[in-house]
Amino acid sequence: MHSGARPYACAQCGRSFGFFASLRIHVGTHTGERPYECPQCGKALASRSSLREHVRTHSSEKPYACELCDKVFSHSQYFHKHMKSHKDGRPYLCSRCGKAYRSSSSLRAHVRTHTGERPYECKQCGKAFMSLPALLGHRKIHARKNT
Question: Pairing mode, if any, of strands 36-37 and 44-45?
């Protein structure tokens, strides 16, 4: 179906789909139905394609390859996000999720969301933050207490 038509609508929320199979998967988000189970860890998933991508987290399989820079990805959404980076001038790519940034400093800040690193520490109470703006916002709490 290339016409852009979306004849299959969800009776619960109105969202429409181009394929009945897509609607059936979507309906599971309302019912909580997750009929596909990972044989390795037991995680339940809503669709066969979600299971296929999840199973790759247990292996090193990376079937999505960028022909422009040779990066490879285990999940299609990371690959598509990466491909967008070639179009919009964002050359700094996260090796974990494929998200792209215009500057290396923005990438470093993003990587902290994966690593949990919190290099910015409040000298008054010791609480640590992932970014300088978060620390500066926190400091205002101490300033208000002291006034």
Answer: antiparallel
